[in-house]
Structures are given as C-alpha cells and as structure tokens.
Specification:
single chain; 6 strands; alpha+beta
Length: about 90
C-alpha cells in the first residue's frame, strides 16, 4: 500500500484515490457539502484554505490545503520540498 502526503503530515492511500480536483466549481462545492452532511468529509487543511478535494473510492471526500498539481506530483513520485508553513505544524 502506497501512502501519499497530502500536506501537514496527513497521508492517503494512493490505491483508494479516484480523483484530485480543484474546489472552485459549483458541482465540487455541492459534493463537499453533501459529504459533510453525510459525515464522510475529512478535513486535512489544518484551518487553511482548501486547494484540493480528494475523492476516495470509499465515498469519503478529503480536503487538502495543497494544490491538486502538487498532490498529483506526489502520486507520481515527484516529491517536492515541504513548504515552511507545513513544517511548523508537523
């Protein structure tokens, strides 16, 4: 099982991820709100602005404070240096 860092030391199983999307569109905002109402929303932003929404095959929705492109790069093995603001909270 491969785990991928989604920011602030939080990890998700790469095998379980269906999509990594931007939270800007109305359908994604609705999906996040519905997940919150159903109790399947996982907020891994540490109070920061949500920049990526990760949709899992278990029907969970995970919020991340790092960009979708960065998350995708981490899935592909292109680990980037951890920004200073993340290091302070680990």
């Amino acid at each position: 099982m491969k785990l991928v860092n989604i920011g602030f030391g939080n990890l998700v199983s790469a095998d379980k991820v269906v999509a990594v999307v931007s939270p800007e569109s109305a359908p994604i905002k609705r999906m996040v709100q519905e997940a919150k109402e159903r109790g399947v929303l996982i907020d891994a932003t540490f109070g920061r602005r949500t920049k990526a929404v990760i949709i899992m095959d278990s029907d969970n929705v995970v919020l991340s404070a790092i960009l979708p492109e960065t998350v995708a790069g981490r899935f592909n093995g292109k680990e980037e240096p951890v920004p200073e603001e993340e290091e302070k909270h680990e």
